[in-house]
Amino acid sequence: MERLLFVDDDMEILKINKVYFEKCGYLTDTATDAITALSCLSEHDYQCIILDIHMERTDGFCLCRTIRANYNIPVIFLTNLTEEEIMVESFDCGGDDYITKPYLLKELEMRIRARIRNAKPVEPASRPSGLSMDNEQKQAYIGNLPLNLTVNEFEILRFLMEHKGIPYRQEEIYRAVWGETCYNTHSIQILIMRIRKKIQALSPEKEYIKTQWGKGYIFTE
C-alpha cells in the first residue's frame, strides 16, 4: 500500500488530508515540523511527500533540500503564496509540483497519483549519442557524468527525447507527461530552463532542447 507524508503546521489541514486520503486507500502520516518529518522518513518508505512552505523553525524549502539530498521521493508543495518567486524557488529547491491553497482534495489526489506513477520504473528507452537515459534510475547522463535531474525534469526530457524532431508547446508537454490539463504553463518553462542549464554545464557545445518560436520546444541530436 502506498504511503504519504503530509507536513504542515496547520493541524486542521493535516486532519482533513489524513481522513480523505486514508479513505482513498493510502497509508497517511502527518508532521507539523521538519524534525518530525525527518524522523518519519527514517522510519518509513514514502511514495510522495506533501509539504507546506511556511512552518516554524525550518521552512519547506530547506526541508525539501534536505529530502532531495537523501531521498528520491516526489515532493508537492502546498501553500497560500502565489508570487512567481515562490513558485520558482519551489522547483529550484527540488520540488516536483506546486498547488495553492485553497485546493480541491480531488485535484490534490490526482496530482499525487501522477507523481507516484511517474516515479515508478519504466522500460529502458534508446539512448542518443552523447546524452543517454537510465529509465530505471530516472537519471540522464552526458557521457559518464550524471545530470542530477529531479523526477519532473527527467520525465520532461525523456518525453522530448522519445519524440525528437517534433515541437511541443508547454501545455502539450504537461498533458503528455502527467495526463492532466495544465493550468500554469510557467512551471514547464522553469523546468526546461533548469534542464538546459544542467546539460550546458556538462556539454556547452551542444544544444539538445531548442525553441521553435510559435511552435514550442523540440529535442534535436
TrEMBL record:
Biological processes, Gene Ontology terms: regulation of DNA-templated transcription
UniProt domain Response regulatory: residue ranges: 3-116
Keywords recorded for this protein, A-Z: DNA-binding, Phosphoprotein, Transcription, Transcription regulation, Two-component regulatory system
Residues bearing the modification 4-aspartylphosphate: 52
GO cellular component, one term: cytosol
CDD domains according to UniProt: REC_OmpR, trans_reg_C
A Pfam family that the UniProt record links to this protein: Response_reg
Domain OmpR/PhoB-type, residue spans: 123-221
DNA-binding region(s), chain positions: 123-221
Gene Ontology MF, one: phosphorelay response regulator activity
UniProt function note: May play the central regulatory role in sporulation. It may be an element of the effector pathway responsible for the activation of sporulation genes in response to nutritional stress. Spo0A may act in concert with spo0H (a sigma factor) to control the expression of some genes that are critical to the sporulation process.
PANTHER family: REGULATOR OF RPOS, TWO-COMPONENT RESPONSE REGULATOR ORR33
Entry protein name: Stage 0 sporulation protein A homolog
Species for this entry: Anaerostipes rhamnosivorans
